[in-house]
Amino acid sequence: MLNWGFIGAGQVARVAMAPAVHRSRLGTLRIAAGRELRRAELLAPQKATTDYEDVLADDAVDVVYISLSNESHVAWCVKALRAGKHVLCEKPLALSTAQVDRIAEAADRAGRTVSEAMWYRWHPRMRSAERIAASLGPGAHTDATFAVHRADHGNYRWDPARGGGALHDLGGYVLSAVLAVNGWQAPRIVSSAMTTGPTGIDTSTTASLAWDNGATAAVHVSFTAERPREVLELRGAGEQLSLPDWPFSAVAQDTVHLVHRDTSGRETVTAYSDVNAYRLMVDEFNRVAGGESGGRDWTMPLAESRAVAALSEAVAREASSKEN
Length: 324
Known about the structure:
This protein has 324 residues and is α/β, with parallel strands linked by helices. The chain has two domains: 118 residues, 3-Layer(aba) Sandwich (Rossmann fold), CATH 3.40.50; 155 residues, Dihydrodipicolinate Reductase, domain 2 (2-Layer Sandwich). It comes from Streptomyces nojiriensis. Keywords: Oxidoreductase.
């Protein structure tokens, strides 16, 4: 049984992560820290505090979950690792490859596990999609879109100094998806474009990607969609694979589906009911961090987080070069 400490008590911590830890038989929520004591108390920890350092100073805490604004992730990841804690950090783990490298160095020195809480990757639907994609052969095309309407202009996601922007906030989903279904090979950027909002963040970003084996991808993220839209589809060699039912935000849905049409035209629809990917993520992280997995369980490797950060940087760099 591992003791968890939460740094940050926002919506994701409240509605998803704290319930997942409470329902896990492998961990317990020992302490939670929030800007306001009331927010920390809503997570129902054994102890609540307004001082983030209290979480790191608690010798009984084994795992620290970090749910702060994007620009704070690297500093608190490094602090937690230096304090001897395992770390599960909200996406994006870092805002650059250099920051991922800082976290990796700290994890290596501490001998602790650190992973990005890209929860949808733990969902069995996505794990199945990755396996099927590997059998499609070269030359498949992937469409990946995550578009929302964000009207909360006072939120940190609209502040470039705090790691705001659609690419930082939503891009991790679509970029990790296209990398995962292409064996984590880095693509080249065929084209990229950003729309910049009044605060200086990208309110939308699109990119076309290509791999040496003929595979291609089109990605799109946006804060200004008239209607929410999420797409993850693959087409190649006469086959088609799609994840309807909100591939990147389906945590609250009772049933989601994976649709695979093979070369003969036969369509297989697999339903996944009552799957809590946050609970799966917490349980597997507990087993890996606790050394009880025996190699059977999985947690998102830092190498994959670094690949996502590198691709995000490349997309932004290509878009900026056109603006200049």
